[in-house]
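note to self — DONT lose this again. spent like an hour looking for the file last time. sequence + predicted structure for the chain T wanted, 479 res
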Amino acid sequence: MTQAETDAYYHNNRAAQRIALIVVCLGSFLNPLILSSVHVAVPTIANEFQADAVLVSWVPTAFLLTTVVLMLPFGKLADIQGRKKTYLRGITILCLASLLAAASQNIWWLIGCRVLQGVGAAQVFGTGMAIITAVFPREQRGGALGYVAASVYVGLFSGPLVGGFFTEHFGWRSIFLFQLPLSILVIALTLWKLKGDWKAEVKPTFDVTGALVFAGWAISVLLGLSAMPSWGGAATLLLSLAFGWLFLYHQNRVEQPLVQVQAIRANRVFSFSLISSFLLYSATFPVTFLLSLYLQYIKGVPPGLAGQLLVVQAVIMAILAPFTGKLSDRYEPRLLTTFGSLSIATGFGILLGLGYDTPNYMVPLSQVFIGIGFGFFSTPNNNAAMSSLRRAGLSMASATVNLSRTLGNMIGMGIVMMIIAIMMNDEPITPANYDSLLSSIRLALSLSFGYALVAAWFCYARGNMRDSLEPEPEPGTQS
C-alpha cells in the first residue's frame, strides 16, 4: 500500500482501527511488563551474583539508557522505513533478548541482555503512538490513546505481580521466559492483521551526527551520575554538558534534524507537555525500585507480597486511563493534568516519613494517590501533545513524547543511583548499612515530591490545547 492507500484504508474503517489498536496495545503492555517485572527481582539477582547496590541498579537502568539513546534515531528511521516495519523489528528483538536474559551466567551478561531489550523497546516506543495518531481521527484519538495508556499500566501492575510470584516460586530467570509467548503473539498479529504502513512519501535524510552526539550526552550524564562523588564522575557530567550544548547547536543548523528544536519552542502546548512528562516520570519511575528495596530489606517482606503491595498504583492508572482519555477529548487537558500532578505530589508526601516502624499499609495508600494522579495526567498529556501537531513526521513526534518519559525515567534512576553511591559507598546491602539505605530512599522520595509540584505548574501554564489546533488533512492528502 502507498501512504495514501493506507490512510484511505483506515478512514472510517472501525474494524481496521480496532486491529491496529489491539496490536499497539499488546506491544504497549509488553514493554512495561519487561521493565517492571525485573524490579521486584533485583534483591534476588543481587544475592545470586553478589552484586552491590549500584551495580545491580544497572539491571533496570541499562534498559532505560539504551531506549533513551536509540528512541529518536528509530523514530526518524520509522518515518523513513515505515512504522509497521520498525514496530515489528522491535518486538522481535525484545523476544530474542528475553530468551538470552533467562540464560545469564553473571551480572554483566544480564545487563548486556537488558541493553539488547532496550534496542527493541526503543523501536516499539517510537512507533506505537504514531500509528494510533495516524489511524484515529482527532475526535476519537484521546479514547484510543487512553486504551494504549491503560495497556501500559496493566503491564506495569502485572510486572511486580509476575516478577514477585515467579521469582519466589520459580526463580528470577522465569520472569524472562514468561514474556516469550506474548512476544510471539504480537509478532504474529502484526504480520497477519496490521495492514499497510506509514512512512514519509519523500524520504528525509538521517542525521547520523546528531544521533551520535545525543548518544554521547545520554551515556555521559548517566555514567557521571552513577560515578559520583568522584572527580571522574564530575568530569563526566561536565562532558555531558558539552555534548548537550553540541547537540542543540547541531540540531539548530542541520537541514533535517532529529529534533525540531525551534518548532518545539514555538509550540507551548507541546513543549510544556514534554517538560511536565519528564518531571513526573523522573519522580515516579524509581519508586518501584526504591519501595522494593524498602519492603524487602527494611521491612523483611517476601518478593511475592512486595509485588502485591506495589501493584495498587498501576491498577488505578489502568482503570482511569481510558476514561480520562475520553475526558480529554471533551475538556481541556491542562485542568486534568494539573489535578493529576497535585495528586501525585500528595502520594509522595505520604512517603516522606518512611521508617522502620511505618505500617505496611502506608505504601499502598501512597500508591492510590499516585495512581489517581497518573490516571489523570498521562493520557490527557499525550493527547494534548500529539493533537497539537500536524500528521507529517508523527513517528518523530511520538518518539519525542516517549523520549520525554523515558528520559525522565533514566534521569530519575540516575539520580537515585548517585544518591545510593554517595550514601552507601558501593557496599553490599546488609543490616549494618540499613540506616544509610533508608536515608537514601527518603532523600530520593523528597526530590520526587518536588518534581511533582513543579510539573503541576507546567501543566497549568501551558495553556489550552484547542487554541493550538490546526485542521487535519483529508485521508490521502499531503500535510
